[in-house]
Design goal:
alpha/beta, 5-stranded mixed β-sheet, two-stranded parallel sheet, 8 helices
């Protein structure tokens, strides 16, 4: 089994989804075709949707929600570090990041943390996909207006020509999320026999710069690819396996399309 990384939506894969590669579903996809949804997800769909609503509501109190985005933080606690309100405590408890009552150990806390990361990534991607659709619609409208006004290549230097020609939809290649956190989240739920598939050149280059060894992929993987294998915590750029994320100690194979 090959699971795409880091994007969980095909619209955000610049070269398009590789044949036979599944998209990861953290529990929210309406259509399960071509997707892998782990059976071991600790948060059900209804609870996940409520958790995201609460998280978004919490983030809206800040002038710049991007500053409070989880992707840049290393733990769920960091996401809420600017507030000590009731909603913070409720959210932390729901993902197993808060202190357990009576000091009890919550065995599902690490996997809830991992799913929470993936849920936030999923919600972020959904917003990006929606924005791409709106921008592409605007571009199409400008194109129709350009044709109606008779603007062709020779008129591009005119003022309205410059406006029309410069209205381009955002490219998925320019969109970044904190892929190390996504990798760690996926590591918590991947089947033992599964591998990740990555065609993101920036991520592959980061691994090359970090000194990871790449080898020609086995025949079971897509032709012309290479593989890199290492513990998830190393691939995500950490210096050691976090105690609160024990699943990152497992070795992950990534099939790379350079």
């Amino acid at each position: 089994m090959l699971i795409n990384f880091p994007a969980m939506h095909s619209e955000l894969i610049p070269e398009g989804a590789e044949e036979g590669v599944l998209l990861f579903d953290p529990g929210l996809a309406a259509d399960e075709d071509g997707r892998f949804r782990p059976e071991s997800l600790p948060i059900d769909k209804r609870t996940a949707m409520a958790l995201l609503r609460d998280s978004i509501s919490f983030g809206e109190q800040f002038k710049d929600p991007a500053e409070m985005a989880f992707f840049g933080a290393h733990t769920p606690e960091d996401y809420f570090e600017e507030s000590t309100g009731t909603i913070k405590n409720q959210l932390l408890a729901s993902i197993g990041a808060g202190k357990a009552p009576g000091g009890k150990v919550d065995p599902e806390a690490p996997s809830r943390r991992a799913q929470f990361v993936l849920l936030l990534a999923w919600a972020t991607e959904e917003g990006i996909v929606e924005s791409l659709g709106l921008e592409q619609g605007v571009q199409a409208s400008w194109g129709r207006m350009s044709e109606a006004l008779g603007i062709d290549g020779e008129d591009r230097e005119s003022e309205i020509g410059r406006i029309v020609s410069s209205t381009n939809a955002t490219s998925p290649e320019g969109i970044r999320i904190a892929w190390p956190r996504v990798l760690e989240g996926m590591a918590a739920f991947m089947p033992e026999e599964a591998a990740l598939f990555c065609s993101d050149k920036d991520i592959i280059e980061a691994w090359e710069d970090a000194g990871f060894d790449f080898a020609p992929a086995h025949s079971e993987y897509p032709a012309g690819t290479q593989t890199v294998t290492a513990p998830a915590w190393r691939l995500s750029g950490r210096s050691a396996c976090p105690e609160e994320l024990p699943f990152t100690d497992r070795e992950i194979t990534v099939v790379c399309r350079k």
